[in-house]
Structure formats: C-alpha cells, structure tokens
Amino acid sequence: MNENTASTKPKRRKNFQEMWGWLFAGPAILGFLVFTAGPMLMSLYLSFTDSTLGITGNWVGIHHYREILR
Questions:
Q1: Per DSSP, what are the bridge partners of residue 32?
Q2: Is the dihedral of CA 23, 24, 30, 33 positive or negative?
Q3: Would you call 49 helix, strand, or coil by DSSP?
Q4: Cα distance from N-terminal residue to C-terminal residue, the chain
Q5: How far is CA 26 from the centre of its chain?
C-alpha cells in the first residue's frame, strides 16, 4: 500500500502544478484570442466581402486583391 501512495503523490503534484500554470496563463490566452486573433480573423473574412459599415456584404472572393495588384 505504501508503494501506491508514493507513486500517486508526484503525479498528483504535477497535476496541481499544471492546473496553476493554466490558471495563470488562461487570462493571457483568452485576451490574445479575444483582442488579437479574433479581430485578425474577422478582418480577413471581411476582406473577402464587399461589406460596408453596418451592412452585410456579398462574398467577392479574391476580387479585391486582384484589383489592388492590377
């Protein structure tokens, strides 16, 4: 019985430390997703549409990029 207790203790400690690591990193990861990655992905999506402020646009694909390079 002592062998089982000794072998689970380091595993439990590792899980506890991993939990604290995620708790400390969580706000930074969430902030990155909400304030950086989210707007970047949304602007990429909007660059492929002909939307204007407040109006959902139609999908135009790479037409805008072809026009810029022309």
A1: none
A2: negative
A3: strand
A4: 76
A5: 11
